[in-house]
Amino acid sequence: MRSIPLVLASLALPLAAGCGADCGKPTQINGTYAVFANVIQRSGSNMDHFPSYMTPANGWTEWTLTWNRNKPAKVSVVIDGQPYTATGSWDEVECGNFTLDFAGTYLSINDSTHEFAVTGDFVAFGPQIEGRWDWEETWTSAQGETGTFSTIGQVSGTLVDSQ
User: Fold this and answer.
1) Torsion over CA of 100, 101, 104 and 107, rounded to 10 degrees?
2) Residue ranges of E strands in the chain
3) pLDDT tens per residue, range 2-39
4) Residue 51 lies in a domain
5) Is residue 8 a part of any domain in this protein?
6) Is 1 inside a domain boundary?
């Protein structure tokens, strides 16, 4: 009877060592995405003059993501042709999960400016990225009005061109 636990233990070791999933490399997200951002909760100042359809936190934008290194990663994020450098982390256990943190100034097509900082949790699966983020910005409209905007939002993107 003593040999049965030993046999079971010796079988379990190779199985435990081989159970790790290969999540792939974070470079699998590299490419250009059509991204829709949806506001879930919002707050801010001077909201009557907020150019809400000109911020990347609300509506359609085009993102190009390029994961450069791992742990912690420098990730190139280009939104509508405007470059930013993000810090990212790729989850080696929960495949496809990653984070991005970045900040910068976004200039909209109608000349409103949006100085922002964002922290997001995302998941990649197939040609899709999905996620939630905390977005904060100080904005100036094309007419010179200023204010602040904060949101907890959802992000959904579809790959349109891989790298």
Assistant:
1) 40
2) 31-45, 59-67, 73-79, 82-90, 97-107, 113-125, 128-140, 146-162
3) 444 444 444 443 434 444 568 888 999 999 999 999 99
4) yes
5) no
6) no
